[in-house]
Amino acid sequence: MQTKLYINGEWVAPVEGGTLPVIDPATEEVFHHIPAATAPDAEIAVAAAREAFDNGPWPRLAGAERAKYLRAIAQGIRDRLPELAHIETRDNGKPLPESEWDLSDAAGCFDFYADLAEELDGEVEEVKLADDRFASKAVREPLGVAVAIVPWNYPLLMASWKVAPALAAGCTMILKPAETTSLTALELGAIAEAAGLPKGVLNILSGKGSVVGQALVEHPQVDKVAFTGSGPVGSRIMATGAKDVKRISLELGGKSPFVVFADSDIEKAVEWIMFGIFWNQGQVCSATSRVLVEAPLYPRLLERLVEEAGKIRIGNGLDEGTLLGPLVNKSQYEDVLRHIDRAVEQGATVACGGRYDGFDKGFWVAPTILTDTALDSDAWVEEIFGPVVCIRPFDTEDEAIRLANDSRFGLAAAVMSADEARCERVARAFRAGIVWINCSQPTFTEAPWGGYKQSGIGRELGRWGLDNYLETKQITSFTSEEPWGWYLK
Ligand code: NAD
To answer: What is the distance between the alpha carbons of residues 274 and 228, in angstroms, rounded to a whole number?
Structure first.
């Protein structure tokens, strides 16, 4: 595991020499220390990325050449997958198979953007002008120096969603992982180094968001900030970046609804509802944490959910058979428990779950189902970011859509019904950037990802993800044999 920052192709100690402890959330053991970058490190990293962009080979390479490096990084992740998955699980707490899934997706993301980098070569769009004395075309070029700031819930995967398209586009980048989970992001530096990535193209600074993250966002030589994290920090980044008109893309939180109609297969509904909220301990921005069930199905579905939630195997993510690990850290654990207590104070009933006391150490919350949550209660309105779902009945399709859309968030939404036309109708009516029909959560590198309303700005993944790192340039020529004739008549 790395103990240094990766800047300009070298491993260096932070200028001010600080470190942060790495705590295993299942055992509370401090098992490593990561370097804590501060503003002087940000300064050096931005200068390196700037030099690599302005004068280095990277943005000038053919897309097909950049693609080779991206594929080598993908292979580097795959070659070390078991070891990296083990690190990810110790760092974040998630069950090992989930870490393996994430890392395999991260490798796939580099391969996907390698293909798109190749497609950029020779990409020219002729623009048809009304005035035929001119010929015009649009070309796309790398945007410049980009900063990626990512959260702790999918450490290497969230980093890959930004690093892969940025490198494919020809940008240079500084990656700032979450202070709680920086280990695999730092390993990405070693993988990029082994892939022979030119110096300064990818720089990795672990450290506190309020310190080094803030310094990167404020830096005038940074052209773009891609952020995934909480709403308040996202809004602050947008305000800071506005000062020098940085390009900003934001992937923020959600309180996503799952509407289940009474004609649904109850067992499928139970499984997708559980996957929608208990996967990754519910620490998922798109988690379907508000479940709306058509009244005739409600009592039986609730009963089955409580039954199955009680069977979920809670344990250390490294233990075989674990389906729910600990929450990522103490503060997240306390925060989720506070939300549950507050829900009860505001009239909710805990149908199952709450604090889990099965272990002496670690940050455990059992799969929790809340009923009777008032529509204006915090539990119904605010993102909890833990294994806590609110469930309530509805009577009509219109009511379900109204309740689903009654949120300041709009990241994701799901609908389940045997009636295809109804699913399509409800999917179109949702005010959300990602909609699932008869499922919840499956995420694909090829498809756009991002939120409506306060869930963010811009889209990641797919070809939309590449657009985040490209500028569009118009090139127009005067092609007429006749003089222009404005001044020289
Ligand atoms: P957070 O906003 O606290 O931190 C996210 C990142 O921002 C971290 O790397 C942190 O160090 C950094 N940061 C904090 N303060 C900063 C500042 N002033 N300037 C620059 N950087 C700063 O969020 P979190 O607690 O790590 O993650 C949880 C949140 O992320 C949830 O709200 C969740 O919904 C959201 N999230 C969204 C998506 C999505 O795709 N929409 C995906 C994952 C998580």
So the answer is: 24
Rounded Cα–Cα distance for residues 66 and 170 (Å): 8
Residue among 98, 251, 383, 397 flagged as catalytic: 251
Given a cut of 90, whether residue 375 has pLDDT beyond it is yes
| Percent of the chain topping pLDDT 70 | 100
Is the C-beta atom of 151 inside 6 A of ligand 1? yes
Give residue 357 CA to ligand 1 midpoint distance, Å: 28
The pTM of the full predicted model, rounded to 2 decimals, is 0.97
395 and 415 both lie in a single domain: yes
The reply to whether 353 and 467 lie within a common domain is: no
How far does residue 304's CA lie from ligand 1's centre (Å)? 34
State phi, psi for 367 to the nearest 5 degrees: -55, 125
Tell me which residue has its CA closest to atom 3 in ligand 1.
230
The residue range of the domain holding 215 is 5-253+455-475
The confidence band for 489, taking pLDDT boundaries of 50, 70 and 90, is confident
The DSSP code sequence of 218-239 is H-TT--EEEEES-HHHHHHHHH
List all residues 6 or more positions away from 242 whose beta carbon is below 8 Å from its beta carbon.
Answer: 248
Q: Tokens 């799952």 identify what position?
A: 258
Distance CA 48, CA 54 (A): 10
DSSP character for 326? -
CATH assignment of the domain containing 425: 3.40.309.10
Cβ–ligand 1 contact at 192 (below 6 Å): no
